[in-house]
Design goal:
The complex is a heterodimer.
Chain A lengths: L1 H31 L3 H6 L10 H8 L1 H34 L5 H12 L3 H15 L5 H25 L3 H9 L4 H12 L1 H17 L2 H6 L7 H7 L8 H21 L1 H9 L6
Chain B lengths: L4 H32 L6 H8 L1 H4 L2 H11 L6 H8 L11 H28 L4 H9 L4 H29 L3 H6 L11 H11 L3 H27 L5
Helix pairs in contact in B: 1-6, 1-8, 6-8, 8-11, 10-11
The chains are: A mainly alpha, B mainly alpha.
């Protein structure tokens, strides 16, 4: 009996912590259902829900294009990173060379280079190559942090597959690439999905490269959301609505892939 | 670069930011992890909700704090006003904009510490605690003689990962204050961005960028080395 009461006391403390912690997120979501004018002119607790801001957001070309660009950049960089990253990871885990540890070390280290530092050479190179304000260019920049991340994340998954599978496949006459594609790729599918989802998320949330490397055409949604601050008066209602839309896939992924989050985080941080 | 007072200013701001925010995040994360290590109803659900802020888009997090701190119609501004803490417009005040930036980071990132520490804590063998209880150890004795020594590698990794991250913080501050007012929140990454894209000083920005990269990589070296030996989670 005493233990149960204790449990409920802890529950209420924990609930309090969670409520306080989620308060800012609640603010965003609620403000998305307010009009800009009501946010400016009334006290913060005034709330009469309306979809006006959502309507305006979807009529806003800049944001809709940003959403599309974000989807494209995140899909491309996630796909390329996982496709080539899984091959690299497979190779590193299956073919033991002395240099492997060095390569892994370097890859993990590359993941830690501050993005603001890398944005400078990217900016100069892309300008020369005609890739600035280009969604492919931006995807390429996102691959620069997603690819090493995918390799690092997938390594333990590939290492966990028993060697016998490889030998059995060889006896059955599989070529090297077939071993990878037909046997290891499906066996590591849990890891592949996790890598795909997390690389997508990182690209989706990314801001620095999008800010520096894109202009009007290839602008992504986070930059467009920031654009709602406007020149004269911040359009908080639309900003919040747009932000809430951006949060939907983020929270879906976070809650859906909880089991892997610690693994995902320790493979080299989640944000930049 | 080393003769540039603005660079030194940014460096000190950056170091101060790290020195204040990270220990607080670590401490909150640690104690909340201890709390969640107990059995209680709905603990799993609350735990999952708690990690959401870590994944909120950095831009949105910065903007939300900016909204909450708006004088006249911001929720937090109204609250602080009632408690008469700080000035009316936090983000227009040199000291308080810096405090706000740190608040924002603590809000966003203590759950990160919490998650890593909690994961480490759940691998702590129960017998250790039970044995200590039989020996009559109090709460603080259990924490300082059993839990902290056991968690040391986990705490170190959590701290170092956050350190690398905090060194390059950019987006949140960029949208919250843009380094202002009058450079009061001009952290290193923002200074680099400003030099490169506002003043067109790409070569100078690259110098500062390289400096930042060298520090980051020096710290990363330890993280990665531990990770390779399988000491991470």
């Amino acid at each position: 009996m005493r233990k149960r009461t204790m449990g409920w006391i802890i529950f209420f403390i924990a609930l309090f912590i969670v409520v306080v912690e989620l308060f800012p997120i609640l603010i965003v979501v609620l403000n998305g259902f307010k009009k800009d004018i009501d946010i400016w002119s009334r006290n913060p607790f005034y709330f009469k829900p309306t979809l006006a801001s959502y309507k305006k957001v979807f009529e806003n070309e800049d944001f809709v294009r940003g959403l599309k660009n974000s989807l494209i950049a995140a899909s491309i960089s996630s796909f390329v990173s996982v496709f080539f990253g899984s091959m690299a990871s497979y190779g590193l885990s299956r073919y033991r060379f002395k240099i492997n540890d060095g390569i892994i070390f370097l890859l993990l280290l590359l993941r830690m280079v501050p993005q603001i530092t890398l944005s400078l050479p990217f900016y100069l190179i892309f300008k020369k190559m005609g890739l600035s304000d280009n969604i492919l260019g931006l995807s390429l920049a996102h691959i620069s942090f997603n690819l090493p991340y995918a390799v690092a994340l997938l390594l333990p998954f590939f290492e966990g597959i028993p060697r016998d599978f490889e030998e059995a496949a060889k006896i059955d006459g599989c070529k090297d690439f077939q071993i990878y594609w037909r046997i290891f790729f499906p066996l590591a599918s849990a890891g592949i999905v996790v890598a795909a989802v997390f690389t997508f998320l990182m690209s989706w949330n990314e801001f620095i490269y999008a800010l520096v490397l894109t202009g009007v055409r290839a602008k992504t949604a986070p930059v467009a959301v920031n654009g709602f601050l406007g020149q004269y008066a911040p359009l908080w209602g639309q900003l919040s609505a747009a932000g809430t839309i951006m949060l939907i896939p983020v929270f879906a992924i976070t809650l859906g892939f909880q089991r892997y989050i610690i693994k995902g985080l320790s493979a080299g941080g989640i944000k930049g | 670069m080393f003769k540039d007072p603005d660079f030194w200013h940014s460096l000190w701001l950056q170091l101060g930011f790290i020195a204040i925010a990270l220990p607080i995040e670590l401490i909150i994360g640690f104690f909340v992890a201890l709390l969640f290590n107990k059995e209680f109803p709905f603990s799993k659900l609350l735990r999952s909700l708690l990690m959401l802020p870590v994944f909120v888009l950095p831009v949105l997090s910065g903007l939300t704090w900016r909204l909450m701190l708006q004088p006249d119609y911001g929720v937090l501004a109204a609250l602080f006003q009632r408690l008469s803490i700080g000035p009316e417009a936090w983000l227009a005040d040199k000291t308080f904009s810096y405090v706000a930036v740190i608040f924002q980071d603590i809000w966003r990132m203590w759950p990160f510490m919490f998650m890593i520490i909690f994961a480490g804590l759940s691998s702590l063998p129960n017998e250790y605690i039970e044995a200590a209880l039989i020996d009559g150890a109090g709460f603080f004795q259990r924490v300082s003689y059993i839990i902290i020594p056991f968690l040391k590698p986990v705490l170190a990794i959590a701290f170092l990962l956050r350190l690398i991250d905090a060194l390059r913080i950019f987006s949140e501050v960029y949208v919250m204050t843009y380094g202002g007012p009058s450079n009061a929140t001009m952290l290193l990454s923002l200074y680099i961005h400003k030099q490169a894209f506002e003043f067109g000083n790409i070569s100078y920005a690259s110098a500062v960028g390289t400096f930042l990269m060298i520090i980051s990589l020096a710290i990363s070296y330890f993280v990665v080395k531990r990770g390779l030996r399988g000491e991470t989670l």
